[in-house]
Amino acid sequence: MTSTALVLRSDGIEGLLSVVPALRALRRHGLRVVLACPPELSELAALTGAVDRILPARGLAPLTWPGPGEEDAAHPPLLPDLAVNLHGRGPRSHRVLLNLRHEGRGVDRLWAYANRDVPWVRGPWWQPGEHEVLRWCRLLRWYGVPADPEDTTLPTPLTASPAPGAVVIHPGAGGTSLRWPAERFATVARRLSEDGLPVVITGSLRERPMALLVATRAVLPPQIVLAGRTSLRQLCALVAGARLVISGDVALTRLAAAYRTPSVLVSPPDGRRHPVLHESGDAGVISAGQVIDAAVRALGAGVR
After folding, report:
1. 13, 203, 223, 284: most buried, per Cβ within 10 A?
2. All domains of the chain, ordered by start, with CATH?
3. Is the pTM of this model over 0.85?
4. What is the pLDDT of residues 245-304, one digit of tens each?
5. Integer Cα distance of 140 and 138 in angstroms
């Protein structure tokens, strides 16, 4: 009987993309993978080819097994005997997994980083500043599971792109303190549009007002604003077929990297580097001209 691993990674798109090589390594190791993550990431999880089932999870809230709608099943799934913490270094994330119980039974084994507050969990020590993808591959290698940090490519979903060949501009970046100003995104969008490039503006439903503001200031029609109008699968198809991604959110440039789409990341310096292109510096002083120049370089790099 195939063993099952319950994997915790209960944050957003960027977090899920950072553990794709680790998830695939677990699958190649012969394990069935149940991923504890927000349910809205289920389409992206399916594209990894390494996730058999989603267990709904929000942050570090307690997990419920076997999951909504399965409690009354004639044969609910058995609680996995292995849990893998790909969420953090603990102790809170360790305890979310260790406290999971079903019919009086808990998880037998936990693969995780060592933490002095949970001394009975053996694992490697956390290295601050380590790249996220490398960190989770190193964890699995410590437990004897080979993991390739370059195994990040995603398949293009069998969904039509809402704007094939477009330049995708994604202003959203979580908190407003991390967001490049709307006026500069608008300048970039207008310039690229004037050069004959099709431009679309993406984001979540919550970010739609910001996206509409960018379009308005760029004097572009509201129809180009796809924020709040695409599913995650459609967003993947859009990025996979895009000519370029310009984003204030590292999650979208990481998605671009998974599809080998060139990108420009505009964000404050925090030690992260995108493998295609990263314009570093203070987001408050990066000019629209600098980003336009970076976009021209990326478009001319022959990536697509």
Report:
1. 203
2. 4-142 (3.40.50.2000), 167-299 (3.40.50.2000)
3. yes
4. 999 888 999 999 999 999 998 865 443 443 334 444 444 467 889 899 989 898 885 433
5. 5
